[in-house]
Design brief:
Number of helices of chain A: 17
Structural class of chain B: alpha/beta
CATH superfamily of the largest domain in chain A: Type I PLP-dependent aspartate aminotransferase-like (Major domain)
Largest interface: A-B, 106 and 111 residues
Shape of chain B: globular
Number of domains of chain A: 2
CATH class of the largest domain in chain B: Alpha Beta
Distance between the termini of chain A: 52 Å
Oligomer: heterodimer
Radius of gyration of chain B: 24 Å
Number of helices of chain B: 20
Helix content of chain B: 40-55%
CATH architecture of the largest domain in chain A: 3-Layer(aba) Sandwich
Distance between the termini of chain B: 40 Å
Radius of gyration of chain A: 24 Å
CATH topology of the largest domain in chain A: Aspartate Aminotransferase, domain 2
Largest sheet of chain A: 7 strands, mixed
Number of strands of chain B: 14
CATH architecture of the largest domain in chain B: 3-Layer(aba) Sandwich
CATH topology of the largest domain in chain B: Aspartate Aminotransferase, domain 2
Helix content of chain A: 40-55%
Strand order of the largest sheet of chain B: 2-8-7-6-5-3-4
Chain lengths: 492, 557
């Protein structure tokens, strides 16, 4: 690398920081959910505002699971407590229900100087960590959870990256390999690129409703052992972008596999309350692990992640979340605690929100009925939209769409005419990116191409959130149908 | 010796890796002939040796590359996947004293007190961190009103809120997806907030233009700083990126550099000249560093943390010239820009000085400047609000930066809203203006008084010498530790100032951070104390420090 210095008082030219001289790992990071297609959507919105004529009147951003942006209303109780915490003078106000005031008082009492403006302890406010562990115990039918194993985080992403960071070491063949599903949520591939870890792909079985097959895990790990040191297995359940809900049996198999192969398990369970399909049920990895007996429950290392951004509340902007770590080496836990302390603490309003999510109004409290009504309405609407999306997509020739058993997305397979694939290649675009760009330009609908999540070679998909209000969703689905038919005709 | 290379040693050489922080700083700082020796350690020998013992004991039961065997009760052997010897070695190098062992002990003591255990004090005072609200400072009413309105927009129909608060809340909500704080914002931050930040910077800098496209909202300033460092770090061996940081420094920097595997280049502030920065010292540091790494960035904290100095305009000019000459990317940590107390001192932003130096500099020198909602008069640490402005950044790199921040989706939206209020507070003529100014002035003048009081009282203590707290929120006095105490500390495997602070904590309940956590010239000892406690409490605290120091000195003389 050249080191230019001032010569005869003339300043050297050129930037210090250029594409050639920046961190090469950062260059490899890709995050399709907010990639070029979203940037184009933002441009289109701007053009529309400025009066430019388009074949559509608004851009619908179905690229991301952002419930409030799609018109979902916040849960009243959650926001009442947050307002009370932000401006405690309101505690004197009769308009707020007693249970909201009590929650606010309890949260404030646990904050330094009774203010959500104070830093919290780095792993999170103590009483909230206790509430989280009680919530987990209840969820898992009484399996104990230790508040010392709970770390609050800045959304689930923060915690996922932190755990990956701990796990990555070695060089060459000794470099840490991390198994992720394909399709995957691209936070994983982005974090692995950033950290310089080896990504090990295992493919979900699209023909069996995106289920996980342990034989495929075995294939992937055996191949990977030739060139890296596989140490971690990441699972997203319910699946993003694929919407499958794992069976208890499948989770058991995964745990057995992780033990056999000496893998650290990372269970991304942020959609745990988003299960819609009949016969499907969310099983936490923690619960299954403990039901498998001490041979597993006292050995397999697991980190499980949750967030305030999804489920019925959809409070993405607050960046609340937590992780629970199981069977983590105490020395490593000390290191983890030290590492999170450098960033001081997760945002305290997000911590407060998380507390309300794990400790919502109880049956004898004044806000209970409203809370249940609001929550049920959101979840029932989501279930309805999940069903509607699958049904509608499966009527389109060239679409195959698995049921949206859970989470917030559909990931249909689309057949693209050979001529369209050629055209895309001429334009230097991945075929499904070309498809999605055309859809955006012609209908104003913003989706994420399947290539951003990974897919089997020669197959094409897109991810679409099911979050728009039912009426709008119908319009979106119709528009996609019309577009697809038009697109297929054009290239046949 | 390359410290960077040492980081990637195999577990077999853990012993060396653990020693690295020490040797590493020595290697970077070098020694000045005749002057004090510069080698210092950010790690207490105690923690090093205990880690070392653990690491070594586990090594005896394992072979390199093979997982360590451990017998469980039912006879099944199951090694952990993730252990101290198989974890990311750069994470192990991270140290962050502001929340280190002394704070953990303080938390324990609080618990013991609450359980009724007798102590020589009634409460633990955590003066280790600049956490204004925890120290009793009240939030600014206007800010919290707007935040409540944004959280629960039903309150917009409430007559008890002033109109200007409602207007601000409406404006913020309008620029949120679905008019909700609960929606993700664009990754760079809410457009209208970035616009307001740009307007604020233009006003602050006397009209020097600011482009909202150069503003990135962040999760506190720390987030922005780490992101920028991440972009800058590359190369191997002698080409590895070196980053110049002041000693004493705010340990976020050393922690981030350790984690990123960058080379830390120490330049020493001049304690005898009120912790001022000397270009000759920068030159010495960069020249020595060029032997073993590739210096590419220069970090400045102004007003200083932990040292409280406020840089003169002249000094900033010199630094900019130096950065241009040596081709360094400038990182200006300006989170204490509203915390200037000393007469004759004024905050000058690096951006403003850069642009006043003319196009030769303003069009070439790359600069990132950081600000936060956590300090100044508002002290809203918990919201994790902040921004950075990038100047002269290469377009392709900016594109990469935008991509990188998009992976974490967005900075917390309540913190973004708060940032907006900080840069766009009530204006004259608006209903909240008077009470806002009153609250802000009260906080800032109390801080100024506390800065003065701290300096005065500490300087009455024989063996404590304290520079004026010109700005920021901390005092960083130099303390004389008797030889016998130093010996006892070393026998216990502790840094002498850690030993001193631990003893103070146990005897008085006052929690400070030892100077070794920030770095200091070898053979000198300091502690950092925040000046934030309310004035009555601060007086008590300072007197307790005084008594403790006298007793300590007597005990070991």
């Amino acid at each position: 690398m050249s080191q230019q210095h001032a010569v005869n008082g003339v300043l050297p030219k050129g930037k210090v920081l250029t594409l050639e001289t920046m961190n090469p790992n950062v260059k490899k990071v890709e995050y399709a959910v907010r990639g070029p297609i979203v940037q184009r959507a933002v441009q289109l919105e701007k053009e529309l505002r400025e009066g430019a004529k388009k074949p559509f009147t608004e851009v619908i951003r179905a690229n991301i699971g952002d419930a409030h942006a799609m018109g979902q209303k916040p849960i009243t109780f959650l926001r009442q407590v947050l307002a009370l915490c932000a401006y405690p003078d309101l505690l004197e106000d009769n308009k707020f229900p007693e249970d909201a005031k009590q929650r606010a008082r309890r949260i404030l009492a646990a904050c330094g100087g009774q203010s959500i403006g104070a830093y919290s302890a780095s792993p999170g406010i103590e009483c909230i960590r206790q509430d989280v562990s009680r919530y987990i115990e209840k969820r898992d039918g009484g399996i104990p959870s230790n508040p010392d194993n709970i770390y609050l985080s800045t959304g689930a992403s923060d915690a996922i990256v932190t755990i990956l960071k701990l796990l990555i070491c070695g060089e060459g063949r000794g470099r840490t390999g991390v198994m992720i599903s394909i399709p995957q949520y691209p936070l994983y591939s982005a974090a692995l690129a950033d950290l310089g870890a080896v990504q090990i792909n295992y493919y979900l079985d699209e023909d069996k409703c995106w289920s996980l097959d342990v034989n495929e895990l075995k294939r992937a790990i055996n191949e990977a052992r030739q060139h890296c040191n596989p140490r971690v297995l990441c699972i997203i359940n319910p699946g993003n972008p694929t919407g499958q809900v794992q069976s208890r049996e499948c989770i058991e198999q995964v745990i057995r596999f992780a033990k056999e192969e000496n893998l650290f398990l990372m269970a991304d369970e942020v959609y745990q309350d988003n299960v819609y399909a009949d016969g499907c049920k969310f099983h936490s990895f923690k619960k299954v692990l403990f039901e498998m007996g001490p041979e597993y429950s006292s050995t397999v290392e697991l980190a499980s992640f949750h967030s305030t951004s999804k489920c019925y509340m959809g409070e993405c902007g607050f960046r609340g979340g937590y992780m629970e770590v199981i069977n983590m080496d105490p020395d490593v836990k000390t290191q983890l605690t030290k590492l999170v302390s450098v960033r001081l603490c997760p945002p305290v309003p997000g911590q407060a929100l998380l507390d309300l999510v794990v400790n919502p109004p109880q049956p004898d409290e004044p806000s209970y009925n409203t809370f249940i009504k609001e929550r049920t309405a959101v979840l029932a609407a989501l279930a309805e939209k999940a069903r509607m999306t699958e049904e509608m997509f499966n009527t389109i020739p060239g679409f195959t769409c698995n049921p949206v058993q859970g989470a917030m997305y559909t990931f249909p397979r689309i057949s693209l005419p050979a001529k369209a694939i050629d055209k895309a290649k001429v334009k230097g675009k991945v075929p499904d990116m070309y498809y999605c760009m055309r859809l955006l330009e012609e209908e104003g609908i913003c989706l994420v191409p399947g290539s951003g999540f990974g897919q089997r070679d020669g197959t094409y998909h897109f991810r679409m959130t099911i979050l728009p209000p039912a009426e709008k969703l119908k319009i979106v689905l119709d528009k996609i149908k019309n577009f697809h038919i038009r697109f297929t005709e054009e290239f046949s | 010796m390359s410290a960077t290379r040492m980081r990637f040693l195999s577990p077999r050489n853990l012993r060396l890796v653990h020693r690295a922080p020490r040797d590493f700083l020595g290697a970077c700082s070098g020694r000045q002939p005749g002057g004090p020796s510069c080698s210092t350690s950010l790690t207490s020998p105690h923690s090093v040796s205990s880690h070392m013992c653990r690491a070594l004991s586990s090594l005896t039961s394992s072979r390199r590359g093979l997982p360590k065997e451990k017998m469980s009760e039912n006879g099944i052997s199951r090694p952990k996947v993730l252990t101290l010897d198989t974890m990311n070695p750069t994470v192990k190098m991270v140290e962050y004293a502001v929340r280190g062992p002394i704070v953990q002990r303080a938390v324990e003591l609080e618990r013991e007190l609450s359980e009724g255990i007798e102590k020589p004090f009634a409460e633990v005072i955590k003066a280790n961190i600049g956490d204004a609200h925890a120290m009793g400072q009240q939030p600014i009413t206007f800010f919290r009103q707007v935040l409540a309105l944004c959280s629960y927009p039903e309150l917009l129909n409430d007559n008890t809120f002033p109109e200007d608060a409602k207007n601000r809340a409406r404006r913020i909500l309008q620029s949120c997806g679905g008019s909700s704080l609960g929606a993700y914002s664009p990754s760079q931050g809410i457009d209208s907030v970035r616009q307001d930040v740009a307007n604020y910077i233009e006003r602050r800098d006397g009209g020097v233009p600011c482009d909202p496209e150069n503003i990135y909202l962040t999760t506190g300033a720390s987030d922005g700083i780490v992101t920028m460092l991440k972009l800058l770090v590359c190369g191997q061996g002698i080409d590895r990126t070196g980053v110049m940081i002041s000693i004493p420094q705010y340990p976020l920097y050393s922690a981030a550099l350790a984690e990123l595997g960058a080379v830390q280049i120490n330049y020493y502030l001049d304690e005898e000249n009120c912790w001022s920065m000397d270009i000759n010292e920068l030159q010495r540091a960069v020249n020595e560093a060029r032997q073993h790494c590739h210096p590419r960035a220069l970090c400045i904290i102004n007003p200083g943390n932990p040292t409280g100095q406020v840089q003169s305009r002249q000094c900033i000019e010199d630094v900019i010239r130096f950065a241009a000459k040596e081709r360094l990317f400038l990182m200006a940590d300006e989170v204490y820009q509203d915390n200037v107390y000393a007469e004759g001192c004024q905050f000058h932003s690096f951006k403003k000085v850069l642009f006043e130096m003319g196009p030769e500099y303003s069009e070439t020198v790359e600069l990132a400047s950081f600000h936060s909602t956590s300090k100044c008069y508002m002290g809203e640490c918990g919201f994790r609000g902040g921004y950075m402005e990038v100047i002269n950044m290469d377009d392709d790199v900016k594109f990469q930066l935008t991509k990188l921040v998009s992976v974490r989706l967005c900075a917390p939206v309540p913190g973004q809203a708060l940032m907006d209020l900080v840069v766009n507070p009530p204006q004259p003529g608006e209903p909240s203006y008077n009470s806002f100014i009153k609250e802000r002035t009260a906080t800032l003048s109390a801080l100024a008084e506390k800065a003065k009081l701290t300096e005065q009282i500490l300087n009455t203590v024989p063996g404590i010498r304290c520079n004026p707290v010109q700005g920021a929120m901390y005092s960083f006095p130099r303390i004389t530790i008797p030889q016998k105490a130093i010996q006892e500390a070393l026998e216990k495997g502790q840094q002498p100032d850690m030993f001193y602070c631990m003893k103070m904590l146990e005897e008085t309940g006052i929690c400070l951070v030892p100077g070794s956590g920030f770095g200091q010239r070898e053979g000198t000892y300091h502690f950092r104390m925040t000046i934030l406690p309310p004035i009555d409490k601060l007086k008590i605290l300072l007197n307790k420090v005084k008594e403790f120091h006298q007793k300590f000195t007597q005990q070991y003389s």
